[in-house]
Amino acid sequence: MDDRQRDKNIMEYETVALDDADSALVVIDQTKLPAVTELIRLHTAQEIWDAIYLLKVRGAPAIGVAAAFGIYLLAKGIDTEDYDVFCRKFREYKDYLNSARPTAVNLSWALNRMERICEDSRGLPVDGIRQRLKATALAMKEEDIRVCRAIGEHGLTLVRPGDGILTHCNAGQLATCRYGTATAPIYLGQERGYHFRVFADETRPLLQGARLTAYELQASGVDVTLICDNMCAAVMRNGWINAVFVGCDRVAANGDVANKIGTSVVATVAKRYNVPFYVCAPTSTIDMDTPTGADIVIEQRPAGEVTDMWYEKPMAPAGVKVFNPAFDVTDNELITGIVTEHGVLRPPYAEAFQALFRRRQEL
Ligand code: MRU
Question: Which structural domains are found in the chain, ordered by start?
C-alpha cells in the first residue's frame, strides 16, 4: 500500500492510530510535513523509540498515546504465558520507550498507566492482560480527544470574536489525537464563526510553528500569519495580540511550566505588553512529583538541528559550539492562567492544583 496521499486535507488524518490486524502503530511522519504527508507503520521497539526521538511523532499528548499503543503492540509480541516473565519483559520495553524523550511527562504517565494494568492483573491469563492493555490504550486516545475539546471550551471563554491570538511551537491537532491543546479554542472558535487572527511563531530550530501549526491552521481555514520567533514583541507592541495560548510538556507543582524553547521569551514579552499568557494543559501534564521548574529535566538535542538541519547549506561555521535545549521553563508568575479540561486555574497554582486533585478524588 502506498501511504503517500497528497490530496487529502491534513486535518482528515489521524495523528496516531493502531492497526491491530497488522500489529502496527501508524503515525504521520511529521518531519516530512508540510511537503509530504506520509503515514509510517511502526512494529518494533526500535522503530517506535526512533519515531519518538526523531520527532516523527511529537507533542506531549500524541507521544503519550503513541507510547501506549506501542507498548501494547510490544506486549502482544511477548511470547509467554507466564505472568512474571511477561511483566519482566513488559518493564524492559517500558523503560526503553520511556528513555526516548525526558521532558514531556505524558510519555512516562502513559507508560506507567499501562504498567499498572499489568500489576493489577495478576491471576489473569496473559492474553487477558493483553486485551486489557489494548482497551486502555484505545481509551487513552478517546480521552485525549475529550480532554482537548474541554480545554477548547474553557479556553474560548478567555477570548472574544475577532481577537488576535499568538501561539508558539505546535500544540495543535498534530500534537494530540484531535483539536490540539493551545489550538483547541481556535478550532472551536472557528466552528462558531469567531474569526480569530492567529499569529504562529515559526519556532526555531525545528520549525514546528511554521511546518505544522501554520499548516494545520491554514488547512482548517483559520486566518493565520506566520512570524519569526523574534517578532513577537513587534506584533504585541502593535496591539495585534489579545491573548497567547501555548501548550506544555510538564507543569511543576508550583505552576512553572516546561514547553518548547522560546516559550518563556513569549511569556516575558507578553507581561511587558499586558497580554494575557495562557498555558493549555491536560491535567495529565501536571506533575505533582516535580516541585519546581528547576527540577524539570530539559532535553538537549544535537547541534546539527541549529547549524544544518532544514537548510540546503550549513548555516554556521563548522565545529562552532552550540547550545540546543528543546524546552525552556516559564516561571509561574508570568502565567495568567492554566487552561485544563476542568477549567481555568489561576495563581497561586500550588493551591489551585491541590484543590483540583482533591475535588477529583472526591468524585
Ligand atoms: O519537541 P516537540 O515538538 O515535541 O515539542 C512540542 C511542544 O513543546 C508542545 O507545545 C507540547 O508538547 C504540547 S503539545 C499539545
Answer: 3-147 (1.20.120.420), 155-362 (3.40.50.10470)
